[in-house]
Amino acid sequence: MLRRSLLSLGAIAMFGGVAGAQGQIVSVMASNYKFELPDSIPAGLTTFQFRTTGTELHHMQIVRLDQGKTFADFQAAMQSHGPPPAWVAFIGGPNASIPDGQAATTLTLTLKPGQHVLLCLIPGPDGKPHVASGMVRPLTVTRAAANVAQAGAPKADYVLTLYDYNFDLDKPLKAGKRTIQIKNTAKQFHEAFLAKLPPDVPATALMEWINGGMKGQPPAIPMGGIVGINAGELNTITVDLEPGEYGLYCFLPAPDGKEHVAHGMFKQITVTK
105, 153, 202, 236: which has the highest count of C-beta atoms within 10 A? Predict the structure, then answer.
């Protein structure tokens, strides 16, 4: 079940895209429980500037439908409780950040032409994922015009590699505005939810809060990250980090039904000045 995979995440409302030095830029705003966005955008390098508003956290999980499948096929597949079908490719998307309508999660990835679906899997107060309240919609990615040059991806300061079940940064993080390339080299799909920890609060406190029904204020500040990506996929995020302690988490389900954090896929990291 992709039930709460995604206290890691942050959802959607695109108001259009513009071309830039690093591909098209698409502004996204998510609210309870709807997405506002164009029906289609061109393929190629795409930077999502993702903001959320309302009373709950949201993320934007992007899935690509392969084998000529449609949004109707996806909706039918969601009615089963088994694993996602092989034609559903998890290609990432921005994870949850503070829902103030101002702070943006900036994420870059390359979109291929075809049918895609945007959805939020974070659970609401009733325990049901937001997708069950209608937070899901199709997105068509069209072929880019032949005369449009494809820009290069933003240069990464750091590389975060996802394994079964671990996170590995290529070097210690320093405070400031940082660009992090995130790649999945594992057999399973994974996410990387980033949260800032208050002083003397361990990374495990957030997991305990979730397991306790998410009552009251969370013991950490959501800072974005990425949602689920399959093996071989790349996402790049830009984050503004203050010095302090942070937690990295993967709440996606393992084959045994347990979340990846239950298999040890969480890590406390220190951001230095």
Answer: 105
